[in-house]
């Protein structure tokens, strides 16, 4: 069995930021089931929010974050995120990361939904994620092991402690790696839905693994749908950044009407849940929705990635009307962690979208996700550098006495069911039907070493779907991204739904 001090699963900004802090101090490996550049971070267009401007203040960023999150946020971690943001960004810039600047050399700050100030740093116009990943990988150079194409099939646990991981190599060999510290940085679960902005690899793996290991999860009902994903011939083709609306683009229905004027004082730049629901409403009433980019000056040079995407998809850029739909984008909930990424399982940490630090509340503010990965990735690494956790002298992992899967649904079936019943608008009847459908499948008693990689992803998707569905059923109110047509909108509650093992226990008993 190979041994590392720290194992990181995933290769987005959270993992790479943690790794840069740990390198030179710890023996670290990053595992990714795909390539190191396949991540939601790499796809990120918008940028990173931080109160860097003299006319801005972290308290305003804090206020906008809490307002978007409908005050469901954890105020302490939200304060930490917004207050520390300028310092972390200054460090990143100091390490050589190049953000876009204006003619005078000052940072060019963009605006996105829910922000009352211009405070979004971006790179390459709309290629912030790609620039960040490239920069951080350059920093890491050869100092840590990056294992690509090796899928983590489950965590290794014993007596409530995480001891490392079980993996499957590209050649099909099952392997075991030990580590005193295992960090889940696997992103969220956008692939649970028919349309998503997420990378194809984002199947909820880390969240499902943490759950099986007994970690507490929280806020799983809060799934954010990005309002504007390019849509043609029944397919979601890629994100159209909120920054485009920040530069003046307008949402119109097929009659050419600007429908956001009646919905919110911030119009197209209202918090995401509000814009996504307004678009959903138009679509439900049979109206295709367009993002009119004609008011954006220099669209092709400010947004080169989106411009190229539109041309590749055959959109008429003279007319400047981009057909859009809302698509699954970001899970606000996840594995419950403290301010240093610690989960409720000893030796197991979660960072980035897989984690729930409480900073996003019921609806994430635009461009706060890369920031969260940066800040909490490094804080988690700092905690590990001071941790006294070690592996036990004799490692005797819990055995998984499970079976081979008999029947599992396809990924497409899961996506259709989730989109129909646990999407932008939910209700008791639909969620109950979804719960009953999920309960037909055994995704609990399985021996992962005997499943194919595809089956493991399906099992992880079913597990996370089960958690979202039960959480959505439990929360009998509408708040932020969790909109129940059978319950009125509430002003925001502080109570947070903790989903503990009993949901699966219940499933086991019934199964
Ligand atoms: C976007 O560019 O609209 C996405 C940024 C984010 O999700 O915060």
Summarize the structure.
By secondary structure, this protein is α/β, with parallel strands linked by helices.
Explain what the structure shows.
With 511 residues, the protein is α/β, with parallel strands linked by helices. It has 2 domains: 7-222 and 332-385, FAD/NAD(P)-binding domain (3-Layer(bba) Sandwich), CATH 3.50.50.60; 225-327, Alpha-Beta Complex (Flavocytochrome C3, Chain A, domain 1), CATH 3.90.700. 33% of the residues lie in helices and 19% in strands. It has 15 helices and 19 strands. The strands form 4 sheets. Strands 1, 2, 6, 7, 8, 9 and 17 form a 7-stranded mixed sheet that branches. Strands 12-11-15-14-13 form a 5-stranded antiparallel sheet. It has a 4-stranded mixed sheet with strand order 18-16-10-19, with helices on one face. Helix 1 packs parallel to helix 5 (128-140), helix 3 packs across helix 4 (75-94) and helix 4 (75-94) crosses helix 11. The two termini are 34 Å apart. Mean pLDDT is 93; it is low at 492-511. Bound molecules: succinic acid. Succinic acid (SIN) binds at residues 45-46, 241-243, 366-367, 369.
